[in-house]
Write a structure and sequence with these properties.
With 469 residues, this protein is of the alpha/beta class. It is built from 16 helices and 18 strands.
Amino acid sequence: MPVRRLFSTIETRKLEARANAHLPAHTLMQRAGLAVARLAMAVAPHAHVIWIACGPGNNGGDGYEAARHLKLWGKFPVITADDATGLMPADAAASRQSAIEAGVIFAIEAPRQYDLCIDAMFGLGNIRALGTLYTNWIDKINSRTVPVLAIDTPSGLDPDRGTHTVKCVYADYTLSLLTLKPGLFTADGREASGEIWFNSLGVGEPSGPCAEIIGEPQFVIRAHNTHKGSFGDVGIVGGAKGMAGAALLAAQAALLGGAGRVYLTLLDTTIARLDTNQPEIMFRKFCGLNLESMVIVAGCGGGDAISAQLDEILERSTRLVLDADALNSIARDASLQRKLEARRLQTTVLTPHPLEAARLMGIEAADVQANRLSVAQAMADRFACTVVLKGSGTVIAAPAMVPRINPTGNARLATAGTGDVLAGLIGARLASRLSAFQCAYESVYLHGRVADKWNKSFPMTAHDLANNL
């Protein structure tokens, strides 16, 4: 799968303005309406009665154009629309008139029975108080038993952030026009958007993407003339009292993720020094780890005990993955933050979930979730690290790089230990001496893909996830 570039609402509107400057008036909206009508027939070919909820702006204009085509093709589109036509853009008003002339039915309320719904209310329009009319339409759409196709962006969803204030349409399909928008792929966007389709309307994309979608990694076949030392060593430091399983999962993932050798330092010294399920893992005291020659994965199940090792780890380790309690310890200690900031570029990966990210940045978790792209980039710039901000549509950011959003994964990953597996997998790929940024986004993709391929009839544990890497 090729990398897809994502663009902010501002860049999309600039592109639309440039396109309109070179196209005859109204042409872009006509192209959009035709694209919507064609996709509607592709996803619901037997639909006859089609409810199209139109808003007051250009998104509504796209809906009018789609209705006109559907009517000409023998379908029965029914439009509900706000009566404030005097406030409508000229192109949208022209499209409305074209729909009327084609014989499209306009109604006060949605039809009692319909086979497909097209959401043409807001799209990229400003997110604002929806009002009773649109709120009722959204409620009706979300209570449906028929497919829903959203034009550009599900109404109520912020196209840049993937959040919504009060409510938004939850579509089965979204047709993104001109550009792909980041909000479709992260936070609430993945669930709200359903299956995402794209149509450029024949217009070239802008030059400055705000993010990219991760493409499937290219797998490299290992050469015959290699040995375990060719694929690097990973040292796991974690597993305080009562949390040894987290460190064991990270070690298992590092081993199954391709590391040549995996060493495990458990902070709970009462635990037996053998994993009978994975006897290849070698147990060592912390003083026995060669921090300069191996990748260190620190923090998985580390509790407060990990704090005692972080000074040395931050100063001496050449390549480093910091997860969980290591991040919490750094968030509490300004001196550790300074040591993290002083590390060499492309050597460190942070893997916070939203609450850990909030602690590191001194903000609330809700602020992180409301601004996932910008917070991940700000954290990467501040600490000169690659940041993996976990969650729906995991964001991977690094200094001077376009951030990437992961398209794989699902709610099966919302269980204890899956983050430890990801940390271990990143450690294994970092041991292969690829850049930290590449190791991070490829690992996140593969981690999510296991969950996507999992048999839906069975639950998935973190142990299952590691075993299927």
